[in-house]
Amino acid sequence: MNRVVLFLLVWLPAACTSLTAPKSNMPSEAINVPAQWRATSDLAAPDVTRDWWRSFGSTELELLIVQAQKQSLNVVAAVARVHQAEAAARIAGAPLLPELSANADFSRRGQYGGDNVFHDNTFSGGLAASYEIDFWGKNRARRDAARAILRATEFDHDTVSLTVTAGTAQLWLQTTALRQRIDIAERNLDNASRLLTLVEACRRAGAATLLDVARQRGLVAAQQRFLAALHQQASDTQTALAVLLGLPASTFTVKSSRLDALQVPSISAGLPSDLLVRRPDIASAEAQLAAANASIIAARAAMFPSLQLTASMGVVTPLDGPLYGVAAGLMAPIFNAGRLAAGRDLAVAQHEELLAGYRSVIISAFGNVEVALNAVTGYDLQATAQTQELIQARRAFDLAESRYKAGAETLMTLLDVQRTLYAALDNAVQFKLLTLQARVSLYRALGGGWKTVADARPNVL
Question: What is the spatial distance between Cα 283 and Cα 152, in angstroms, rounded to a whole number?
């Protein structure tokens, strides 16, 4: 026994120095974080908040997002994964405490017949305890890894919630825009049908050719095809929104029909360095990397001896007095065909993979914000130009209508100008949709108001 103790005292300091996780560069050291975004943003605009969707000013959108956060099946599944990680963390922390169990047995034996008939009743009961001394930190490392996985799972839940929220907003905006475009397309079809009636009348009077009639009929057919396509897109988009909300498509209908009343919010992107604590996917990747660090420590500790202490106490009748037992067992791996070494190498390789994934998530996050900012700027400029296009189309229609009433212009010219106006109106709706969706994408890229906070959860053994 003295030799074993002496052996442990000599080996313990050397072993503990080797049970350290590999050093990993932090994102700020491994990645060149830009000082500012390439695309400009409104620095005077308010910061992104957790209820960013309220900035669009739609009551229906607010109700749908609240509904999505509560009953979307993606969110429900993410919550279940968090509960699984909580249970796994408790399981991983259990070996740090002694394990106590109770046992009870009863037996009866006897002999029938003959001169020595007897019956013997025996009862035994007691408690047994076992505990592994965590010299090398194996159990602590496994507990720390499970806790880190739990944090990563919670951050993944936040990522799913943000994705569902942004997806709900995108689909609702698209459905609303399609309904508004359907209204414009119906008016355009009515305009084309009226013009066809006029051309056919002119053809019967000898003032138009068959070519004119065929051309206008083709335009009417094209408008009919375009209107049918819009109806199909609107139905598909509404179905996708219902699925995201966890509802049957046949029982769900979007009530809003216009984008005109929606506000176009201004968003402050902040500094690129702020993004490192504003996105749950980055926090999840960091937590997974921490779990990999702890797994390496546990894999290395498994290569060293383990000391198991056991104790038991009980009673056995008909014997007098309690019985007890105390034991200590030392087990050291000698030959396992390289299994433990392979486990260590596996943990190191997984750590390297997660480190690369960690850096990739950060780079992708920076790229997401740059793309979203560029989309906001680009669509705003295009929408401004399109606004002038619409203004001129309205002016042309007003002039053509005045000239037609004065007898200076034909009905065919007036209807043609009106068709141009309807096309400009359709483009205006599309650009309004793009500007709003670009801001939803920017909200999502910036983390949707999420921020890393100190973990206030109690320790889970």
Answer: 7
